[in-house]
């Protein structure tokens, strides 16, 4: 007999969890994340779902009721995490999708269209630096050459990481997506909108444009003790000023919704306590309500960084590693789903999702959000009450019944 939502959640809870801070380390194509995918395959088998894998780490389980035909309804999410992440970002959508199928069967629903539950790989970009890599490969928005050039922080090639886990990478569009007519992703909310509205479940209207940018600061290594302050060409100072500039520029946003600018990752060379650095590489995550505002924000940060570099005797080069445009979810699809329940607000999100990648690729897509009482995400403090999760399962089941009938 298939496990309940609570049983499935309890089974996943220990996988990849740190014993120190309680955060999750489910990096793509590594043991914990692959263990989660193996668990997913087992759960699909327990429900009699036909399992497909595209060789790139994406897995989908198909519920094909007798006589079901036509464009499929796809749901699901991802199973990987950011470094020291929370339990709900991604897995909640996968577990809820399996539970929703159970609920539809309990109701005696016989879908006339196939329903698929997808578990996408490397959504967070925590290992290979490109967010939603699995879904981007699936829709063909990342070329094989681009994928082959990807390396993790230890220099491991993407293809080698895949092969080491027994996968047979194809680095191309997935055949199974050709049968998909629409996609619906359930996700924990990564903010406080639903908390402030005192509502358990909402829908997404759009995803803000966002990007990841590498800032390479170069200077001159020197002795921390014998080098006078006036004689230094210290890239750490240039970086520090640029980080402050990013904070200021985001806070100066003219948009009512504001802007976001975050330097969250840093590499320093030679990374020695008693040496002036020779180089600092920092990664900026920037998000705005419009693409024009995003371009302006990044340009302003780069301009202030270059001005400071000129004063410090250092250099700065900026490279856009990943930029995603604004995504508007399918309005007709969202309207149909909103009509299925009361108090289902439609809200924008500044977080990226696989649903956004599929939407840009031309697959009508929508999202359900489940309330997060902490408002915190990408952190062990990320949370959702069981009652709200079960309300999300109900909402997802209602949506699948509507879309697959």
TrEMBL record:
Binds 2 Zn(2+) ions per subunit. GO terms for molecular function: hydrolase activity, acting on carbon-nitrogen (but not peptide) bonds, in linear amidines; metal ion binding. Zn(2+) 1 binds at residues 78, 89, 187. Allantoate binds at residues 212, 274, 287. Zn(2+) 2 binds at residues 89, 124, 378. Keywords: Hydrolase, Metal-binding, Zinc. The keyword Lipid biosynthesis does not apply. Its cofactor is Zn(2+). Pfam families: Peptidase_M20. The keyword Mitochondrion does not apply. Belongs to the peptidase M20 family. NCBIfam families: hydantase, PRK09290.1-4. This is Allantoate amidohydrolase. It comes from Nocardioides marmoriginsengisoli. The lineage of its organism: Bacteria, Bacillati, Actinomycetota, Actinomycetes, Propionibacteriales.
């Amino acid at each position: 007999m298939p496990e309940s939502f609570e049983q499935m959640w309890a089974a996943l809870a220990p996988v990849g969890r740190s014993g120190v801070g309680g955060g999750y380390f489910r990096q793509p194509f590594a043991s914990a994340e692959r263990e989660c995918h193996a668990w997913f395959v087992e759960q699909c088998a327990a429900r009699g779902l036909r399992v497909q894998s595209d060789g790139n780490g994406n897995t989908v389980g198909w519920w094909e009721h007798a006589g079901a035909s036509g464009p499929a309804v796809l749901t699901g999410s991802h199973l990987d995490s950011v470094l020291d992440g929370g339990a709900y970002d991604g897995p909640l959508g996968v577990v809820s999708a399996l539970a929703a199928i159970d609920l539809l069967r309990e109701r005696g629903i016989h879908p006339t269209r196939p329903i698929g539950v997808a578990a996408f790989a490397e959504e967070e970009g925590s290992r290979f630096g490109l967010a939603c890599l699995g879904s981007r490969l699936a829709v063909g928005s990342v070329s094989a050459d681009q994928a082959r050039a990807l390396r993790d922080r230890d220099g491991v090639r993407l293809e080698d990481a895949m092969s080491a886990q027994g996968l047979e990478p194809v680095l191309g569009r997935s055949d199974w997506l050709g049968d998909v007519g629409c996609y619906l992703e359930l996700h924990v909310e990564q903010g406080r909108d639903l908390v402030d509205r005192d509502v358990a479940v909402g829908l997404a209207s759009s995803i803000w444009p966002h990007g990841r940018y590498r800032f390479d600061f170069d200077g001159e290594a020197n002795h921390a003790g014998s080098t006078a302050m006036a004689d230094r060409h210290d890239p750490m100072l240039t970086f520090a000023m640029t980080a402050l500039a990013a904070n200021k520029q985001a806070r100066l946003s003219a948009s009512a919704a504001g802007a976001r600018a975050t330097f969250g990752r840093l590499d320093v060379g030679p990374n020695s306590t008693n040496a002036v650095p020779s180089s600092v590489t920092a990664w900026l995550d920037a998000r705005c309500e419009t693409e024009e505002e995003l371009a302006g924000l990044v340009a302003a940060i780069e301009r202030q960084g270059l001005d400071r570099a000129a004063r410090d005797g250092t250099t700065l080069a900026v490279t856009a590693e990943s930029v995603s445009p604004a995504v508007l979810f399918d309005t007709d699809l969202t309207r149909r789903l909103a009509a299925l329940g009361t108090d289902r607000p439609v809200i924008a999100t500044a977080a990226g999702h696989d649903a956004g990648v599929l939407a840009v690729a031309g697959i009508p897509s929508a999202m359900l959000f489940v309330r997060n009482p902490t408002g915190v995400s990408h952190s062990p403090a990320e949370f959702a009450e069981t009652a709200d999760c079960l309300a999300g399962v109900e909402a997802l089941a209602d949506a699948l019944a509507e879309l697959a009938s």
